Automatic annotation (TrEMBL):
Gene3D superfamilies: Ribonuclease Z/Hydroxyacylglutathione hydrolase-like. The lineage of its organism: Bacteria, Pseudomonadati, Thermodesulfobacteriota, Desulfobulbia, Desulfobulbales. GO terms for biological process: establishment of competence for transformation. This is DNA internalization-related competence protein ComEC/Rec2. It holds the Pfam family Lactamase_B.
Amino acid sequence: MHTARHLLPPANPTHIYQRITQRATIHLTGTVLGMVTWDGEKTRLTLASETLFLPGKAPERLAETTTFRPVHGKIRLSLRGRPTRPIRSGDRLLLMATVDRIHNYRTVGSFDYQLHMAAREIYVSGWIPSPDHIWPIPARASLPQKLKELPGQVRQEMGDFLAATLEPGPASLYQALLIGDRSRVPPEVLEHFKISGCMHLLAISGMHMGLLGLMLYGSLLWLLKRSTRLMLAFHVETLAALLTMAPLFLYALVAGMHLPVLRALIMALLLLLAVVLRRQRSLIHVLAAALLVILAIQPLALFTVSFQLSFAAVLGIILAIPRLQEKFARAGHGSTRIRTWIQGAFLVSCLATIATLPIMLFHFNRISLIGPVMNLLVEPLLCLWALPIGLVAAPLIPIQAELARGLLTLGSLGLEGARNLTAAASHIPLASVQTITPSAGEIITYLAALSLFFLPGKKPWCLIGGAVLLVLVTFHFTAGLWFTKEPGQTTVAFLDVGQGSSTFIRMDDGTTLLVDGGGNHSSRFDIGERVIGPYLARQRVWRLDQMIITHPDSDHTSGSGFLLDRFRPKIIHVNTIDPDDHRSFGQLLSRARERNIPVVVGRKGEVYHQGVNTSLRCLGMNGTGDLSSLSGNDLGLVIRLDHGPVGFLFPGDISIRAEKVLLADKWSGRRLAADLLLAPHHGSDSSSSRDFISRVNPRLIVASAARAKSGWFPGQRNLQLWRQEQIPLLTTGNSGTITCSTDGVRLECTTFEKKRLRLK
């Protein structure tokens, strides 16, 4: 009941979520919460809102803000570039921003950003157009307010000190290790850590808290034992454990008290409490207690990846502890003991990998095969060298900056070593294997097999049963690599990729194709990796048979580089091999050459697929009449799919001029009639002429356009024309991914929210 209540959005009418019902430009006052981050491209901050003013016309003087309405609740704001004045935790600001409720890509498999932010009690986000739209508000904070904002300020100062002291590479890694801020870690470095299976080492976790607790406990115990009076008056081990708790709590506050930090803090405090109460018999009770406390505080944590991975990994290690204890008890001395420790560390890493495997595959569709070995190499550099030195240097920053600088420089040697190791390991063939998403049945079967191996007093039949289940689930999971399942019907899915276009087609004989692969994109957000790829993995696609790029514009190609690497299409059809100034398209062509994937320029009349019931062919534009007056989008590929008498038309981004050329061409013009039309150029008024719509005569039009572009895509002229012609319209921005299926007789379309529309 507690969790269900938190799954609902805020109901208080004064909450900013209730005041912001659609995209709007507003003026807002509030107080900065926590650390302001900078990733090299954008500045991000969280504001505790106080007052709100609509419609967003800038007041010339603060005295004119009397019409502001009171609000409360957090809002996440981003600014391209950096603010002209430093912003710190606790600052009060007046700013202008374009805001909206947080929305997800409504494509199966994509990251649930809405739930991720709801776990932080953030339901609204926005963009600040310019640093000039931020105005500081002079304010005198009370002592409780100053104390509340102190951890965020300390975190900010530590981040700035690291950035100013070290080179960008080590500084970004130290920020991740010490204060939990990965925003400045370059994407390629993060990818290397992912491939090598060491990504978890860049998050503040039980390793950090355990190491800090051990250092504090050991130091305090040594100091307390220097006093005979204290040793006679108190149980110094208990006293040291109690004194260790407060610094751990303060460090968690400085680190941002995010979910992994909170989990590590609670487990560390419970372990110390177990020491105090002499109750250390079962670590699994500590794990269960930590889980219960976290879910009581943050119930939505249950749905977060970090929560699931951290508890699964620790559970796997706890279950292996009895076996490790037996191994260490039999260990001798010298080289034998060192070998035993290395074997134990390797076993722990393997068990953590095995325990988290279904979660990793479900959320990320990848597993690092070199992870256990790389953890043995990287962990000492980060956790036994860089991290301890960083933890010692951190409290010295405000009092002995030069000494802290020297220590951090020394610690950065470990960071550089870890970065070089992971970079080298990322080039090992099959270092990281990318897979499909496992089904619920496969996950349950895998866990059942593991449980048979870990049963107390297990018998031979348990081991045999577990092995059989593992073989069966492995075969079922990888079946798509060995044979093609023929679904018997054709499925066409228009993916919600924001302002862009990507369409997945699965023929009735199992052939898979992707028409375009672009959408919203930034240096740290790849639409192919975050949205299209996860969708294909959910559809259990191991490899694409074909990829079709209608034209080079980034909103059709921005994710195609990742998709080529991940799904290795057997052939790529394009309208040109001249990348011109289209960066993402040029990268696609380069990667295709490196991997010996054929790239073919499509022409009118070419058949891309011919099955018993289905066909896919090119209607233009290359080879279609006189193209001398056309350029850019108008030279894109126009594709037609048929399953029996049911037809689909994909005209890319052609305009009215190209439509006229198609209509005038005898061969192409006769083949334009289709049951479903993907609106040219996302429904822009520059396309979809009356003559073109009349010739196609669609039963349904689908527009691939972002929700934020409503009013422009589709255009008002087209909306009016389609209403006059009584043609139903679905847009990906409003309906999410639209999946249409046909058996050659009936055609049925389903939105992301399972609303159905039958056309035949």
